[in-house]
Every structure is written in structure tokens, then in C-alpha cells.
TrEMBL record, chains A, B, C, D, E, F:
This is 3'-5' exoribonuclease. GO terms for biological process: rRNA 3'-end processing. Its EC number is 3.1.-.-. InterPro entries: HD/PDEase_dom, HD_domain, NA-bd_OB-fold, NA-bd_OB_tRNA, YhaM_exoribonuc/phosphodiest. Keywords: Exonuclease, Hydrolase, Nuclease. One of its GO terms (molecular function) is nucleic acid binding.
Length: 315, 315, 315, 315, 315, 315
């Protein structure tokens, strides 16, 4: 029974399809060319070396190519490595497709669409609702497929929508407990806050930063987008400015990328809900991998802390 | 109709009972003694000068004394001041009592007790439940009357219980959204996290720091209390250590008073819920005082920010 | 001979027109109303108290009103104060106008216009030139009248244009010394970098922050403006992105308000030239006021340093 | 003549007993298992590889096992490595014991006991004396055998007692020079300040952090212990609180693990004496290893500085 | 019986000589001139106002003038103030001299000279000894009269020598406990480390910063002095460089004024001994003024902490 | 055609002279000795391994030896490496000299001398001119040959003079634009500011830190030198102090090595011009190596940023 590369243990053999995520050429100290491949399926990734690589190999085994590999799982410097015994590019007749090799959100597209629609229906302020609706229409495909980040949290297909929908649920409950909160504004802030990532990041499969991602970043990109959209929809009024402020301030501090800190109640709350959902996503996924009585690996985006799972937790 | 000192406007006359919160002796530059009084009722506080104070006055008009004052509301250096026209100490026959002059939580004692009891009933881990129950029994009176802090957030009578109950509600909803969370542990952390303030702060009416509050602080005090309680109840097991860790780490960072950062999922979540509830309390109370289109005063504990109330908010 | 309020010494009498910059009501400790006025002309400003102010006075003596005052220059807590002996509002027949009471750049409008035009003529890249030209047309009036800031440097009428023109001169010379620099890009960055202040600041006379100035700030405002302008001019190409990057990064660091640091040569140079011109403006104006052998006042925006003028400098 | 592994030079052969401190399994890139061993005796430690390790080897060569090794000292990436030629586990008849392979304090147990006793005899405050005596009794064994830390300073057997006794000597002299110092309090603070390490660290031989060490840390552990001990001894009075404060504040700052900074004279002095003794221990041991005219290695716990030994120092 | 101004209590009358430390002119809001005087004797200082000051008064009552005052001790904004009833300048026949009004070290000049001589006699390295001897000769007068600082610690006449002698005693004892320490070097570092203050500070009575004090600071001044002295004495060898390093690094960190941190054992120890003696001086003097059970005022140079004197301390 | 090692590509053969910059001995895991060589010519550097090195090889192939090598360019861990096929030390008859293998400033010695002379001729203050002239005479050789730093900017032969001359040109232009600047002072500051590096750094070819460089640093060294020079030239007056201040403060902040920040106009400007010239040197050299549309490597001394070369730049 196939379990995927993320669950393979040292000493096991492996015989299945994998996607090449990265391929880098190298030369051994005695002058022979080889390829370092990062291979992945939906469960995880592993490094492999292709020794004595020919020029043909270099042209064949490139990023986004699916391959059929047999090999053994070894360990090198504390990390698993796949020792390749045989390898060939996948063919059309193999019936495998790129999307099978990508980690996905634990909920499906229909669920995400439904939850987004639900949130928009709850809105009462027509201006805010119109702007949000227009963005969902404009970015529908990317919104439902992109990851929320290239690493750290929700870094999987549909991660962005998963993050948004999860934040919306937190927002709904907090709005009940703190009834002064303007729910329309908060919902809109949640849906729009990271949409700039659709232009900041290169795509779903091999997620890197685009040029405008590097030179501007998703926050200024999205502030500009809201201004353009308001002009297109011929909307005026403070709602536009406040929505731009929510997006601009959602990282909370200048050092963290928000040149203006939150100065509106819902902006502060948006920042806190973003923190909670990102942290719970990282924590839950890391703790799922350890048994009670153990610590997780150090989590870089949580100040490099390793977290403990108490013995009295269920396994 | 009496509205309380917190709502008096410059130019108005005032004739009612007030509590002396602080009384300080001074001497004018031409050598005459006077008293500076901070006076308060349940709606707010105001400064007043008692000129030409006699030695009798100094003995009579001291902190925690209730007085009957008539006077006018003036302004001095941008702050309101009460110009005293006549003043006398309250007598038994006046029928006023100290607790009438203290700001109170917007919910009553019964409600708070009920909500705490409810949370304990929901707990399934018997060890955690026993410890929490024992603390609620030990500190029942203080827990229901103390403020959560001497200033900044929930700084009113029953503020501590109000903060706890509000956090418990947030915790209940987040536990549903993130089902991996150990609700018993999170509830217990919330109920216990600030109980050390019952020893750190001097009391309900004139809240100052005690000697052990200054030399140890509420966090180490409470870590020790949990250890003592476990010994008294003859409880062993990791629950005790984990509860101590939750209390110890709930300020999140060494610079903020937690020598160990959160290293357990519920410790991280406790820290975040504490942040949310404290911030929403400060924000809602500050925004309640301004009309749409205005900024609040600068809020010291929110990085000195002034918050804006959008025009499209209801007044 | 009239020298202006900025040059009046303690003990002198004063008899001239002044502009009310700020007027605040107060009440003395014995209950009498008064007004605190900040008065100014083109040479500086001074505080004055108007005792026993009537309701009429309060309505009459408000911000932006010009008044005729006679009084004496006293000193109070180390600062000069004008003791008002008589005061009346200016009348039409007095022939004074608001713009006479405002500090101005040491160069005139024609000079500034000419220098800006010169810079645009030097540009060779048609795309960059078109965008800059369009902004100069759009904001011509504000660009030539606004201060560069509400305080610290170039905080006077036409200060923004003065700052830009001065930076352009530095840029021209540095471009000769470092010929790899793209002069078009650098010039464009200089002209556009602070244009967002026309929306961030309220105006020339009493310069405060607008709502969008507070909630967004001039940097995100201008990044959005460049995007909108490019769309209006139907311009595409990397120039637009790079210009947005220059504006976005010109404060140099996230902590200083640039969420992205300079990542293009001309962006780094723009930041440095901005620093030089702002600092030289502050330093030269502060050192002009002291004689050799003395220190200036502490300059807040120069890390609170007081600067020394060596004895061997000419007075 | 045997000199120990810490003094072996590259190119020499080695034939003696060593203790396995750590053993980690690995697999070569061609799939063969090996063991990486960290071996030590009382003079130092060295890495070794055991190639082609069988399953038996993996069970045999584990942490805390003493082995007999012959091999050669090689160098790999700038660090010495032991090339194993033959190896076997030690047998009972070899007459070697674990404690022979551990670095020890340069003074013996009797000396340390005597000096501690001496300090207690000097105390005049009966309450302080009783508490200290009770702790020395409770933790006698650990106190005399534990290291003061897992690395950096006094990281050897009996290092904790060595650190305490050395600090007591400094304290005695400083108390003479600054006679206002309360010597009883300072002595007690010195003896108790790091006792929490007996629960924070796992033991003498392979020193790691325990679970309560990680989740609480030695400072909160010891604050709690003092509270418990006072209750057991039925002691009340400010001495208990002040001792807890000394322990709590001895790292000097929140960022360094003391949520409350020193607020009592002897607390401040305890912090400074702790600094001096830890730094002199690190400096002296590092400088002993270099000749005049050389720099030491970088010392991580001294801000990564390398220290210079002047030419005019005796070798 | 005369006790000095530092011990006067509110309500007492005062009739004695005082030194004017500072005199500043002011004008009341109704235009009348007055003088604000800071008056002192050897026990402390107090503020006084001289109302209706004539031009003659302004010329007479200036800094460093001794006056005879009768008055009453009042309180103004929480600080004592002397209400002047009569005042006249001291005359020659009064037999008072400036040095009577200055706070002095608690030990006399002979003691300080003796202790310095003793330290030099203990030195064995002839080069180090010669340099130190030459500096003591060059700066004898200033060394024995200057304060160690203009405020914070040892800020009294002969404070510098008192600080040095106290540090020498600590150094002697620590050298015994840590015999690896080069005592000659440490002694020399202690004697020289702050000698640059003789050029940085203006003098004993009214201590301000000189121009070279502000533009260079005592550390670079003294590094240069050692270089010049070595050249004058025709001394070469590493001792000169190491002494310069000790002076340069004695503030411990770049942020604290040492561009190079300590990189020699005795440099590190010099920094620590400097810290201890400065802190003990501040702490002991502050704690002497409070009774057991009280906190001191906040000590600015001790991170603004207020220190507690335990109840079990002798008064 | 020979292009130099800096331009060699992977796969090419190499046959030319190179200079050994560093030689380090190593031992392979199977016990065989080898040498790691860093080889360079005027265009760049490369690493090479000399396997099976004999004792003779170790004596022959040392730093500053020129060798004749044939080999192939390989790649190892992302960096180029030279695989040595044959190697021999250069002989006298080869006609190669060390200076051929060192990177040089892009302008020659005559040009640099002329520009320095020109600057001195422009000076009008005779005191400043005399000091600068004396230093140029004293350090003529080093000034014209040393690098400005051991890495980061102007780190090549004559880099110091190149940096100075480039800064002088910027200073000349800025002095015209800000005519209040004292050009003599600014020029002198520029010429002297880094002269201490002639004692801080070991030399032109293999640039390391000297002992006094490590223990004092170039800034305190140069402050002392100016004092000594003034004494030699029997110059007094504020110019000496101000020049020392310019050197002392030119790093701008205590954290960056200037214990006193700039407090004179020309000191501030010196700091800014130093920044500009260093940054433009780093940026221009890094951007010269990439084509439009690419990013440079991360530049460590520019906060680790990678810079982008826009597509519209000429290649």
C-alpha cells in the first residue's frame, strides 16, 4: 500500500511517481556532473542525487517534471535522502497529473466557496459588500488555489482560502462576544488582507516571489488595488480609506511591514485574528506529528520554539 | 438629576457625595498649607484643592473618606478641576457607603459566579478540575471583587472576574474552531493566570502594589501557589507542571515578564486570548467616549495610539 | 524699524500685526476664563495669554485670524511670552493678508518652477518623463506652495519644492561623479518621493495631518497615485514598478516607514540625498542662529543633538 | 605515559578507555550504517566514526558505556577526530568507573563542604541560617556533585559547589569593603541562587535539560522551593520574601530571565558577584590554553569575544 | 544646633550661610523680575525664589557667591523650597569659604594619597609603574580634588580619588581569589581609567562639561594622554598599548562609550569592578536616607529602580 | 587569450600564474594530509585542494608564494573550485611579481596624488592645511597603496586613496550647493578620517587586523595621532580639537564605533559622504556583474540586501 514519500522511513524501498520541485547541477570533486533533485508528492518532500548525469538528463529532469522512481530511503547528515536505483520521466499513459503532487488544504473548494459566499451574504454595508464581491470575482481562481504563504503557515494549495475561511469563523464568534465590532468591516478586512499575495507569489506549485513581490510586497500592492477598484466601481466614501487602512496595518507594526499601525478597532482585531489563525495552523500541524511526551521540531516562525505535547493528551 | 462627576462639564455646579482617593499636603509659595484631593465616584474622578487647610482638615480629609461637596467645575491646564465651595465628611446618617463610589464591572456577581461554575462543570480532567475548584474556593471573595489591574484594562471592581469570564467565552468558541485544543487546560489557565494579582495588588478601592507584588510579581507568586496547592491536595502528575507553565508563560516573552515563553499549545493560546480581551476592553471603552469621525485619546497600553471611529459607525 | 516677532528680545515693546496660529480656552484656578494664543509672523512665533476673555473674545480670536497687538516681551519658564496690553482684529483697511505671516522658502516660485522644468528637460527616458510631467501638472499649485513637513525640515511655505530642487542639484552632481547612476530615474524619484504629502498634510498655513495622512501616510498614498497615473496614461513597463519602489523605499528601513528597503541603486541614492538635504537644512538654519563658540538648541530630528559652531568660523 | 584525549595531537596513536557521551546512527550515501560517537575522558572529548556498524554494535555502543579503543588522531574540517582501529566495551575486570571520565572541579568535596559550613557558621540571622541549612541538608548530594551549567562556565562535576564557594569568598571580601552589606543575606542568596539547577539539569554525566527545566527554568523552581521550605519549617517574616526576591532577580534583567530586577542591595550585589565568578572561570580556563601573544578561541558566553594574552604575561 | 540644609524639614526656619550654585532670571506673568536660586551647603541643596529682584540683585546674587539667608522651609510640587525672608552676600569678616559648601568624600586627602602610594609600591612591572607614577605626578592636584562624575556616583569633592581607592581595594582582594590576574595591570587600569575626567569636567564646585569633554569625552582624551606620556618617557612595549586598551574598553560596550569591548582579562575585570564600586556608592548613599521598610527614590543611573530596605535591617 | 581566474567558467581549463593568499593543512578521514589553497590574481580568487601533500609541499606552498598551475574549473557546493593537475612555484625567470596579483583601484597613483594635492591647495585655513600636509608626508606610501578596508568597499590596492579622492569630489560639489559648509574642515576630515587604517590593517596583499587594530581600532589610533602631530608642529587652537572630533565621530553612532556622535556640521557631512561613497562603490561593483533583469548576490555590508538592475538599464 502506498503511503507517500512524507511517511517513508529509513531503510525502506520506494517505487512510485514523484514531482521534481527543484533541480540543480553540480560537479563532484573529481569532475563528474550530477543533479541534486528535490522531489515531492502530496505528503512531503525528499532530496535525491542523480549521479553521472548526462546532458540529456539535465534537459529531462527539470522542475515541474513528474518522474517514476525506484530507490531506497537512506539518511545523510540527519535528513532522509532517496538513493535512486532507476528513474524515468512520466508519460501521458501513466495518468498522473501535477496537481496530485501538491499538498492541499484539508477542506475542498466547494466548502471554501460556500463559506466565502456566506460571509458576503451576512454583510449589511452595501459599499463594503460591493468592493469585496468585485475582488472575489476578479481573483476567483487564484483565491481558491493559492497558498497563504511560501512557507510557515497554510503553505499548501488553497491555503489562502483556508486561512481566510478559518479567520472568518473566528471573526463571527468574536463579533458576538464583542458586539461593538463592525462585522462587515472585519469580514472585508479578512477577505482582502492577503489578496496581494496573488501578485506577490509566483503560483501554486513552485511558490517564489515575483519581481513586484520583492520590490513592493503584498501590502502596498493591495492598498493600490483597493484604490483602483473603488475608482472602477465609482465608489467614494470613508469605507475605501478604512479598508485600505485595514490591509496596510494588518502586520501590526512598522518592523513587521505595516508602515502605519492599526488605528481602527477592526484593524487591531484583524491583526490579532491573523496571528491566532496562523499560529494555530503551525502549532496543530507540528503537534500532529509528535506523540505525547515529545517536543516538536523548532518552529522558525514561532520564534524558533519547540513545543511540548503533554502526556495527558490523547495520542 | 445626578449624573456623577465623570460626566460633569466645565461651568456646571456640583453638589453630591464623593470619595477621597488620594490626599496630599502642599504649601503655597507664600507659605500657606493646602490639600490636593483626588475625588471619585463610580463614574470617574476629578482633582480639587482645599485651600488654607487646618491641621484638623489634614486629619479629616484622608484617603477612603467619603465627603459631601458643593463646588464648580473649572479647568486647569487642560484638565477639569473642582473648585470647592463647601465640604464636610459624610456621616452615618447620610447612608452612603464606600462601594458606591467605585467603578464596577458591567455584569453582576451572580452572573460571574455562574459563568465560572459553568466552565468548571465542562472540565473532564479530574486533576485539573480539582486544582481549579480549590483555588476558586480559596480566593472566592477576592476573585469576585478585585480589578484585573491597577490601570489600563478591567481596572474596576470585579474586573478580574469580568476579564476571566470574557476570556472563557472566547476560549469556548476557539476550542470549537480548533478542536485539537485541550479545553480543560485552556479554561484552567484562564481562571488561574492572574490570580496572583490578589496578592500583588492591595485591594479594590485604592489599588496599589504590595511589597510582595513589587519584589516578586503576580506571575512567580501564582506559580508558587499552584505548587503549594498541589502538595496540599496530594496531587502529582504532569498537569501541575503544565498549569505552572501556563501561568509562567502567559505574558509571552521574557521582556514582558515571562522568563519562559509559551511551549505548550494552550499556553500560546492563553497568551493570545489574554491580549485580545485586554485590548478589546481598552478599545471599546475608549471608543464609547467619542463620536464617529473622532479619534480617542492616546491609549498608553496600546503603544500610545489614538484610535479612529469611522463616520459610518453608528453613534 | 520693525523686525518681526522672531527677533524680539525680553524687555522690548511690540506693536504690530500677528497671525493667530492656535487659540485654546482655559480657566484660572479662581475660575476666570482666559485664552492662550500662539501668535506668529514670517519670522517666528510667541505665546500670549488673553486674561478675562469674554465669550465675544472667544469667538473673535480664533486660529487664522490676524490681529493688531501692542504688548511687552516677558519671559516665562525660559521661553519668551508676549504680555498683551491691547489687541484688536485686523480689518480690511489694514491691508494685511494671511500669506504675509507665514515663513517662506528663501527662493521664489519662478526659480523653483524653472529648476523643475530644467530637470524634466534633462530626462531621456520618455516613459519616466511622461509620468513626472503628468504629476507636476496635476499637483502644480500644491507642489509650489506646500511645506515639506509640518516640522523639523523645510517646514515653511514652498518648502516641498525647495527641498526637491535642492535634492535635484545634489543628484545632478552625484550623477556626474558616479556615472553608472540612471539620472532620469533618480530625478523622477526626487520629484515624486514626497508628493503624497499634498494629501497627507492639511495645507500651507496651519499644517496638520489629514485623516488619510494618519491612516495611510504619504508613502502608500503616493505608491497608489503612481499606479493610477500609469493606468490613466496607459503606460506599462518596468518603469512604473521601479518608480513605485523608489517612493516606497525612500525612508530606507521598515522602522522608518518603508516596508521594503531600497533594492535598486537609485532608490538607495534617493534615500541618502533625502537625508543629506533634510539634515543640511536643519543644521544650517540652527547654526545661523548662534555665534562661533556656541552650541545650538537640541535638534529633535537630529537625535536630539546640540551642534557646535567652531570659533574659527566666520560669524 | 597516558595524558588523556584532551591533550592528544594529530598524528598520535591512542590506546585507552573512553566514555561514550553520545552515539548517533547514520547511513552513508551508498546505504551503509555507521555510528557517530562522542567520546570523552576527564581531560576532554573527541568525535569518532564506527563504520559498518552492525545491529549488535548499535545496541552495545550507547551513551554512558565505557569502551577500550585503539586508534589514530586525525583532523577533519579543522577538528580532531579519532580513527578507530579496534574497540570493545569495558568489562568489570578492567576496573574503570564512569566517574573517572568526567571533568571535575579543581578542589575536592571536603574542601567544598568545609567552606559551605564555614559560611553558615558566620551567619547571625537565625531565620536565614535555618532556611539555608535545611536546603543544604535536602540537596547535599546534588549540591556537591552537579555542574553549575550544561556549558559555558563551571560545567564540570562539582561545578555548582565550586561556583558557590568561589562566590562566597568574593562576598566575604566585598562585605568588608562595603560594611553596609547584609552578609547573611548575601551568603544565603549565593548558596540558594542556582540550587534550582538540581531539578533543571538531568545529572552530572550527561547534562541535559529536564522537562520542568524547560517549562519552568531553575529560577521559578527555586522561588517555589523556598516558599515550600518556609512553610515546612513554619517560618514567617520578610526574610522568606527577600530570599525569594534574591533568587528571582539574580539574572539582573527581564531579558535575561529575571522577571523582576534586583530591588534590594544584596540582590544587586549577588547578580554582580555571579557575573564576576562566571566570567573569571571562563576567562581563566580559556587563557590557560594559550601562550602569551595569542588570542583565545571566541567565547560564546562572553559576547563571542576572543581574548588576548599580553606578551608580558608569564607563560 | 546647625544641621545643614540637607536635613531641614518643612516648617522649620533656617538661618545660615549657603552657596549659590545656579542663579536664573525670570519674569512673573505680570511682568515682574525674580531670581531662581539653587543654594547648597555640604549636606545638600534647595531651591529658593528671590522676588522683585533689582538689577543690583541680579549682579550680586550669582553662581559661586556665598550668602547669608534667613527663611522658612516650604514645600512646592513635592519638593522643598526655601522661602527667603532676608538675604545678604557673605563678607570677608564672616570667615566662610567656598570649600565649606561642597560635599566631600568621607575620607581625607592623606588617606587617599597613602592608599594610592601603597598601590604603586605593590607594582612589580617597572614600565607600568613608571607610567602610573608619571600621571599621578602630572595630575596630583586634580586627582585628589575632582569628583568622579557630575552626577550619579561619587559626585563630590575628591570623589574621583575615593572611587579609585575603593576600586583598588576590591582589586586587591579579587587578585588574591583569582591569582591568574595581573595585579599591576589591573591597578594601573583603575588609577588611569577616569583621569580623562580632569579634562572632561570643568572643576570641583560647579561641575559642567568642557568643550573637549563634549566633543571627545574622557575616554579618547585619556587614550591620547597615555600615548603622549609613553612618548615623553620614551617607553615602548606592549604595556602602553594594553593600558590604552584598558582605558578604551572600560565602559564595556560600544553603546556605553567603549568602541572596543574588553579583550584582555584585566580589562574585563576593570569594567566589572568599576560597575560594582559605582553601584555600591549609589546604593549605600540612597539606602542611608531611608528607614527599614521603605523604598528609596528612583535611582536614574540604576535603570530608574527604587530599592527596598528590608525590615530586618538595622536602622 | 588569458582572462584571469575571476572570469573562468566551470568546465574550462586553466594554465597560468596565481598567488597563494591562504594555505591551510588538513587531513582526510582516512588520514591523508592535504592543503587547501586560496589562489588569486588581479581579477578574483578561487579555492583549490592539493591532495597527498608532502612535508615539502607544506613548506613550499605558503601564503604570498606565486605558483604556476594547470587545472580545471569544477564546482563544489555552489562555488567554483580549481582542480589542480600540475603545480610548481614561480621562479625568478618567470618574471612575475606579487603586485600583479592584487586587485587595484581603477585610477592610477599619479591621478590620486594630483587630486590630493589639488585639495590641499584649495584650503585657506593655514593650521588645518599644515596638519593635513604633515600627515600626507608622514604616510605618503601607505596612503597611496593601502586598501580602504579588508572587505566590503574599496578593498583593493590604493583603495584608501581612491575612497578619499572620490569623497573629496563629492565634498567639493556639496560645498558649492551648501555654501555655509567649511570646506577646509570637510576636506581635512575626509583626508584624515581613515588614515588610522594604515596601523589597523597589516598591509596591501594579505590584509588582516594588527594587534593595535584589534585592541584600539583605527578611530582612537587616529585621534591620538592628530594630538601627537599637533604637539610636534607646535600647533594649538580649536582646529586640532575639531579635527579629532571629526575623526572620532565619523562612524555616526556609538554602536557603529564612534563614542561621540557628530556635533559639528562638517562632522555630520563627513559621515554622510563616507556612507555615500562606500555604498556607491559596493553597489556599482556588484551591479556591474549582473545583466538587466537580474539581482546581485546579497551584499553583507548593505544589510544583506540583493539589488535589482532594471530591464531598462543598458547592459
Amino acid at each position: 500500500m502506498k503511503r507517500g514519500i512524507g511517511y517513508s522511513a529509513v531503510g525502506e524501498t520506494f517505487d512510485d511517481f514523484l514531482l521534481i520541485k527543484e533541480a540543480t547541477k553540480g560537479t563532484t570533486s573529481n569532475g563528474k556532473p550530477f543533479l541534486t533533485l528535490i522531489l515531492r508528492d502530496a505528503t512531503g518532500e525528499i532530496e535525491a542525487k542523480l549521479w553521472d548525469a548526462t546532458t540529456d538528463d539535465e534537459a529531462l529532469f527539470i522542475a515541474e517534471q513528474i518522474i517514476r522512481v525506484t530507490g531506497e530511503i537512506n539518511q545523510f547528515r540527519g535528513k532522509n535522502q532517496l538513493k535512486i536505483l532507476s528513474v524515468r520521466p512520466a508519460q501521458e499513459t501513466d495518468g498522473v497529473k501535477l496537481s496530485d503532487f501538491v499538498e492541499k488544504a484539508p477542506v475542498d473548494r466547494e466548502y471554501l466557496t460556500e463559506k466565502l459566499t456566506e460571509a458576503i451574504f451576512e454583510m449589511k454595508n452595501p459599499v463594503i459588500q460591493r468592493i469585496v464581491r468585485a475582488f472575489i470575482k476578479k481573483y476567483q481562481e487564484g483565491l481558491l488555489t493559492y497558498p497563504a504563504a511560501s512557507k510557515n503557515h497554510h503553505e499548501y494549495a488553497s491555503g489562502l482560502a483556508h486561512h481566510i475561511v478559518s479567520m472568518l469563523q473566528v471573526a463571527r464568534e468574536l463579533s458576538k462576544l464583542y458586539p461593538q465590532v463592525n462585522k462587515d468591516l472585519l469580514y472585508a478586512g479578512i477577505i482582502l488582507h492577503d489578496l496581494g499575495k496573488l501578485r506577490e507569489l509566483s503560483g501554486v506549485v513552485t511558490t517564489t516571489y515575483t519581481l513586484e513581490g520583492k520590490l513592493l510586497g503584498h501590502i502596498p500592492i493591495m492598498v493600490e488595488e483597493i484604490g483602483l477598484m473603488a475608482r472602477e466601481l465609482q465608489i467614494e466614501g470613508e469605507e475605501v480609506l478604512i479598508l485600505q487602512h485595514l490591509v496596510l496595518s494588518h502586520h501590526g507594526k512598522a518592523e513587521w511591514g505595516s508602515p502605519t499601525p492599526p488605528l481602527v478597532r477592526e484593524a487591531e482585531l484583524l491583526h490579532l485574528i491573523d496571528l491566532i489563525d496562523a499560529k494555530m495552523n503551525m502549532l496543530n500541524r507540528a503537534l500532529d506529528k509528535v506523540i505525547p511526551g515529545e517536543f516538536t521540531d523548532r518552529l522558525f516562525a514561532m520564534d524558533n520554539r519547540a513545543f511540548y505535547k503533554p502526556l495527558f493528551e490523547e495520542k
